[in-house]
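Write out this protein's structure.
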Amino acid sequence: MNRRQLVNKFGFSLLLVSAVITSGVVLRAEDMPAVGNTAPSFTLNSQEGKRVNLEEFRGKWVVLYFYPKDMTSGCTLEAHNFQRDLAQYDKRSAVIVGVSVDNLESHQEFCTKESLTFRLLSDTDHAVTSSYGSIAHFGEMVVAARNTFWSIRRA
């Protein structure tokens, strides 16, 4: 699939890069935005306490990844891999944005402890995570399912 196929005239166009199904979690394809469709817009707070809107990434590739929980082994490994490769993403005019349902204080602690420099967004009301079909339920606990979307915003 080439860049032209990923972009439509309405804005961000999506490509689901990966979806990891965790034991006991059922994700349905029909709950996720379809490949090639416009990405659901959002505005969320980052670990820096700043509002981040999808529109601010106009003209850039966006790697939007959803992850279950700050400071857990799998999520830490995933974040370290993005951090390790950040220079490669920068060269390609791509930004990394992580989303979980953790609060800002948790994100701040996670970024400080793990030396993460990309944005982690807090979706405590689950609205964005739900709009991307990335909600996972573990009994009474609700987390983001581990999904990664890749998109481009037309300039």
